[in-house]
Write a structure and sequence with these properties.
The protein has about 475 residues and is an alpha/beta fold. It folds into two domains: about 325 residues, 3-Layer(aba) Sandwich (Alkaline Phosphatase, subunit A), CATH 3.40.720.10; about 90 residues, Arylsulfatase, C-terminal domain. The protein is built from 16 helices and 16 strands. β13 and β14 form a beta hairpin. α1 packs across α6 and α8 packs parallel to α10. It starts with a helix and ends with a helix.
């Protein structure tokens, strides 16, 4: 089935559902359709929680940070210790989440050749199952997404926002700390708008998808004075970040708590799936505080911008109907699995269009010990130009890293890691398991060729320019 046929079938299904709702009053559909709340943090490292993201690994949490509300999602749901962002920087991840695509397919930088506005997105997929769904996006959208929130199918949003809208001060790479009372990092106002939308939807008897994309904990640091004092009184941080950074994270966690409380007060918590993840890994220590010491993303290697684990492995927690409480899973899951997951959970039956790389997480969410994810490709694909170029494939157990020449013409270095038992990527197993590496390399290269994935910055620029020229001619 080609993608036009798949999308046409989904549209026909939506029309049939709408007609049936008219005949039946739609009351049953409205009362039973699940709600979805996706909470996306910005630049939050895998281990930047106050509870272990990987049970039994003490270094997968911080004793200094305080994230009780995010941790609560893990206690009341499932912690995915092999959770990944689709890319090592923000916009590519946000684009991938909306479309269910890998960054190798749709772009791993701030420009894209991908016509997001013309493609199936989370709101469009949900509305194809049930036209009653109301969809909203609040907070950071992204630069170069290929579509505005309206074009992506959202009924309400903050518009085409990015980092400047989340900072009261001009963004600078060298960290600045601004102590303020007035809505630092816009965390409070973003949370309020989301709660208002959720409340309106619930009172109208309408199912909803709400995405809350916080500007925290992206630099610059903005935080309330009392929050800074709280962490300064705790003493020296256990990692190389500032007390103010910990405060900014805590204030975002407070926002998460307000969202969870709102679901409870409205009586819809039991029928709402809540997903929490970060858009990419955390920054390395010199970018966060200038201090020497244990990296803020320890025990992972490298950080944001890299497709080593520090740049793409992130907190990933899920709570919701039929999701068992207090469980954990080592199954690799990714942000580009979310669109097919939400479609499946909403009752979607038609196959996803062929360009969708993700698979539904429903089975593994409900059965963390034995569930699996079925995707078109056996593994998760990652690519970046800035730090390499590098490409990677994550299988159930192993991760293959290919470092390329700067022009993308040839492979310069091969690395194979046990991603389950060696999260710090300290032991290159390429010589011990050459057959595994060769098989994974074949899979990865075949996919990259099929996608015509640009590896060097020059190739990337050329592909975006070609797509722009083609759009003008059409």
């Amino acid at each position: 089935m080609n993608r036009r046929t798949a999308f046409r079938q989904m549209a026909v299904t939506a029309a049939v559902v709408a007609f049936a709702n008219l005949l039946c009053g739609a009351e049953t559909e409205r009362s039973t359709a699940p709600n979805f709340l996706l909470i996306l943090s910005d630049d939050q490292g895998w281990s930047q929680l106050s509870r272990e993201i990987k049970p039994g690994l003490a270094s997968s949490k911080s004793d200094y940070l305080e994230t009780p509300n995010i941790d609560r999602l893990g206690k009341e749901g499932v912690r995915f210790s092999s959770g990944y962002s689709p890319a090592a920087i923000c916009t590519p991840t946000r684009r991938s989440i909306q479309c269910g695509t890998s960054a190798a397919r749709t772009g791993n930088e701030f420009k894209t050749w991908w016509p997001t506005a013309e493609k199936l997105t989370i709101p469009k997929a949900l509305k194809s199952v049930n036209p009653d769904y109301r969809c909203a996006h609040f907070g950071k959208w992204g630069t170069g997404m290929g579509a505005s929130p309206d074009e992506a199918g959202y009924d309400a949003s903050d518009g085409q926002t990015c980092n400047p809208q989340g900072n009261h001060h001009p963004h600078e790479l060298n960290p600045q700390c601004y102590v303020m009372e007035d809505d630092p990092k816009m965390t409070g106002s973003v949370t309020k708008r989301a709660i208002d939308f959720i409340t309106e939807s619930a009172k109208a008897g309408r199912p909803f998808y709400t995405q809350v994309s916080y500007y925290a904990v992206h630099l610059d640091i903005e935080v309330r004075p009392e929050t800074v004092r709280h962490f300064e009184e705790k003493g020296e941080p256990d990692r190389a970040y500032l007390p103010a950074f910990a405060g900014m994270l805590k204030e975002m966690d407070d926002g998460v708590g307000r969202l969870l409380t709102a679901l409870e007060k409205l009586g819809i918590a039991d029928n709402t799936y809540v997903v929490f993840m970060s858009d990419n890994g955390g920054l390395s220590f010199d970018k966060v505080s200038g201090r020497k010491g244990i990296s803020p993303v320890a025990p992972l290697y490298q950080g944001k911008w890299y497709v080593y684990e520090g740049g793409i492995r992130v907190p990933f927690l899920v709570r919701g109907p039929r999701v068992p409480a207090g469980k954990s899973s080592t199954v690799p899951v990714c942000g580009y699995d979310l669109m097919p997951t939400f479609y499946d959970l909403a009752g979607g039956k038609d196959p996803m269009p062929p360009h969708v790389d993700g698979g539904s997480l429903k089975t593994v969410m409900e059965n963390p010990d034995s569930g699996a994810v079925q995707r078109p490709l056996d593994g998760l694909v990652f690519v970046t130009q800035k730090k390499g170029p590098n490409t990677a494939l994550r299988s159930v157990r192993y991760k293959l890293m290919l470092t390329w020449e700067k022009d993308g013409s040839a492979i310069k270095k091969r690395e194979l890691f046990d991603a389950v038992n060696d999260v710090g990527e300290k032991n290159n197993l390429i010589e011990q398991h050459p057959e595994i590496a060769a098989s994974m390399e074949k899979t990865l290269l075949n996919y990259l060729r099929a996608m015509d994935t640009p590896l060097s910055p020059q190739q990337y620029k050329q592909k975006c320019s070609a797509a722009k020229g083609a759009n003008k001619r059409n």
